[in-house]
Prior knowledge:
The protein is of the alpha/beta class. The chain folds into two domains: 141 residues, Rossmann fold (3-Layer(aba) Sandwich); 138 residues, Rossmann fold, CATH 3.40.50. It is built from nine helices and ten strands. The protein has a ten-stranded mixed sheet, with helices on both faces. Strand 6, helix 5 and strand 7 form a beta-alpha-beta unit. Helix 3 packs parallel to helix 4 and helix 8 packs across helix 9. The longest helix is centred in the first third of the chain and has 20 residues. The two termini are 13 Å apart.
Amino acid sequence: MEIKxxxxxxxxxxxxxxxxxxxxxxxxxxxxxxTLLHVVTVYDDDPYNPSQxxxxxxxxxxxxxxRAGAQFAETISRNELKHIPIEYVIRRGxxxxxxxxxxxxxxxxxxxxxxxxxxxxxxxFFLGSVAENIVHHASCxxxxxxxxxxxxxVPVYKxxxxxTDFSEQSKRALTLATSxxxxxxxxxxxxxxxxxxxxxxxxxxxxxxxxxxxxxxxRSQAMLDDMIKECVxxxxxxxxxxxxxxxxxxxxxxxxxxxxxxxxMGTHGMNALGQIIIGSQANRVIRxxxxxxxxxK
Length: 297
């Protein structure tokens, strides 16, 4: 997968610094350029709240833009990898996520890295649904970071987890993970069998998938092996695993157990019975995982 232009929306929070560190790691691997984007907004919380009042002075916008430019200049000066080209863009808008998506529609962006939250009261750029909106609507891969403490050092992806439901989105996630993996790293390709079924899928044969499909473990293992052969070069170390449990919980716990540096997964897909599951599971993994998560459509 070719990555040449990386967008890093920023609110100057600690999570944004960690998102930039991940973008630097990926840019170094793919000889890519980085664009930092800050959206200047003048409202406090909700742009659609009719009780909001808006400053009508251009001086106020100019002040915010000047401050953002100074913070970007400081951020770029601290860049560990000086050979990676970085530029910054400041735009005005009422809704950060809408302005980010507009920017994506205007530019050729291959990859996005952004923070998902911040503990700082003034850094509210990605609080709530902004990051989720970008994950859901962006056509390119989106890497989300929820780390907001410690030094924002450029990471190394030595262990990458790829949860899969065997959909085309999952195959693209595996291909992307392979392109981000360090040469001596390891891929863990995981399929989770969630035994309990939703009531709508109960049958006379039972209410658990292992009752309805008793050979699902063996079938899943064979499909994992085929998927790795199709998507992963023979020189890359990849391990195929089938586990049982709640999907998002099992993914997060496995990533912690293997000390994974990154989780790569699709945002749309289905389980063995055709239930649409991956979208909601991706959101849960993004919220719970200690490591960054990259999602792809």
